[in-house]
């Protein structure tokens, strides 16, 4: 690593530290839209109980997502994205 690259790295770490400590704001932030769980479930035609089973979550968790009290994360969020994009084929795979 040359000196110029090292200086850029140090500057980047210093900026990150300032952001973490609240001394600076990030230059950009990436935000992803929350999945519209109820609309995605409607595309499948499933009840809350059956849809929760397909996702591997409790019915109560699904209700919380649909009512905006909680938000899906990780694998559940990815699965919802797949179901939203192609509910027919996703359900064929998930029902096997």
TrEMBL record:
UniProt keywords, alphabetically: DNA-binding, Transcription, Transcription regulation
Limits of the HTH cro/C1-type domain: 37-90
PROSITE patterns: HTH_CROC1
Lineage: superkingdom: Bacteria
Any Pfam family matching the protein: HTH_3
Cited InterPro entries: Cro/C1-type_HTH, HTH-type_reg/antitoxin, Lambda_DNA-bd_dom_sf, NadS-like
Keyword DNA-binding: yes
CDD domains on file: HTH_XRE
PANTHER family to which the protein is assigned, alphabetical: ANTITOXIN MQSA (PTHR36511:SF4), MERR FAMILY BACTERIAL REGULATORY PROTEIN (PTHR36511)
Record protein name field: NadS family protein
Organismal lineage: Bacteria, Pseudomonadati, Pseudomonadota, Gammaproteobacteria, Alteromonadales
């Amino acid at each position: 690593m040359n000196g110029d690259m090292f200086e850029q790295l140090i500057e980047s770490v210093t900026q990150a530290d300032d952001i973490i400590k609240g001394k600076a704001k990030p230059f950009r932030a990436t935000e992803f839209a929350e999945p519209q769980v109820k609309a995605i479930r409607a595309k499948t035609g499933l009840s809350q109980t059956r849809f929760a089973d397909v996702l591997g979550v409790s019915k109560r968790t699904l209700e919380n997502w649909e009512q905006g009290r909680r938000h899906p994360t990780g694998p559940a969020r990815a699965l919802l994205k797949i179901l939203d994009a192609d509910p027919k084929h996703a359900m064929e795979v998930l029902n096997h």
